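Re: export button greyed out
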Amino acid sequence: MKIVLIGAGNLATRLGLHFKACGMNMLQVYSRTLAAAMCLAEQLDCLYTHVPGDVTAEADLYVVAINDKAFHDVLPKINFGNKLVVHTAGSIDIQILSDYAVNYGVFYPLQTFSKVREVDFFSVPICIEANSKENGRVLEELAKKVSHDVRYFSSKQRRQIHLSAVFVCNFVNHLYTIGGELLNEEGISFDILHPLIHETAIKAMAHDPKNVQTGPAVRYDRNVIEHHIEMLKNHPEWGNLYKDLSSSIHHLYQ
Amino acid sequence: MKIVLIGAGNLATRLGLHFKACGMNMLQVYSRTLAAAMCLAEQLDCLYTHVPGDVTAEADLYVVAINDKAFHDVLPKINFGNKLVVHTAGSIDIQILSDYAVNYGVFYPLQTFSKVREVDFFSVPICIEANSKENGRVLEELAKKVSHDVRYFSSKQRRQIHLSAVFVCNFVNHLYTIGGELLNEEGISFDILHPLIHETAIKAMAHDPKNVQTGPAVRYDRNVIEHHIEMLKNHPEWGNLYKDLSSSIHHLYQ
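Workaround output, generated via the alternate export path:
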């Protein structure tokens, strides 16, 4: 299967490298930024362009991994013919592609990607959707070559998955950041939190997180809560988060 | 070393079982609730009581693992003589024990404990503090028998560690819960989030979490953020958390 990557960011990089490792024929990389296109194409040993009109028509599949704000700028300038076009975004409806392609779908890998880190891609759940049974079959076949966990979802379901992911990944990472900053103020190394961070994650996966909530908020330990809020007086934004998260926990278990 | 446990909750249970496994001589368990005292004493093969005045004077060390609100009810009724007494709470000053004991300290294991789950106690950081060098030496020796990670902290530092732990454990678990509830509404199983939860935790430990923040808030992707808030309209409390966490992320990286 001959593939063109539209995009050269974190996700496009991880996808491209893994597709290549799985034996796919990577044909070309497009990016608005020439340097980014060149850099990824170098790693994939393929062609590159920063001109949408120069995207080759020879591929079987076009994988769009650019910011959704750029869709309307870039996609109308590419001639996809009747080839299969997929986007990779959790939050975007499949229908957005109907303006640019006849055969289209979604290939959303549910994971956090950074250029600095390799992930075990075979364990990443791939959420797929397609505009026809036949396109669904093609996408499923491809997805099963690159991951052990492939599932069909509607655009509505995928949006909900993406929203959940923001809570359990992006927001969680921000709480890790706050924890680290607070320790830093007392000259304490972040690594003291590692076993706690690890156990909290493992426990939520082994049990339902709703059933293993601990801490002052679920006990509604007013002394501790008030003292903590006082300790955060120099960080009013974090103090508010502390209050709102504690109330939300308290209300859920009341 | 002969030890008495004051308390029979999650922490007392995990401590007692691990101390016993490490060869300590567990003498007695006290709990206000007779059934809880009996249940833990049964597992530790030791004596039990629910009467503070019946706590034995024969121990070398008294480990207080009860809710801090109960300190003033229970501790004055126990005769500690000149024996070493430690509490196990992150948020409580060492000085609270000066009203009840001559030799005292703190033995705070930084981890989340449940009765339903065993943890690898040897990897749990133990934060110790003592009212004298000699008591510090005794506590350090004990702590090193039950954990590979023993560190001295002042009460002020320990309070900050506890506050950080609330963010990276209790609040993080609540975000996992919200993520699970949102999926549930669309009939999607929580396990689809497992690889993401795991990678988010591992990544924050391998790198500084501040350097690996991803998602719509750090990009300040207004379309996605507004759509997510709209999706949370039936959960106003979670919608507010979404807004406040997104603002907090945005301000940190601006």
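DSSP finds nine helices and eight strands in chain A. The button fix ships in the next patch.
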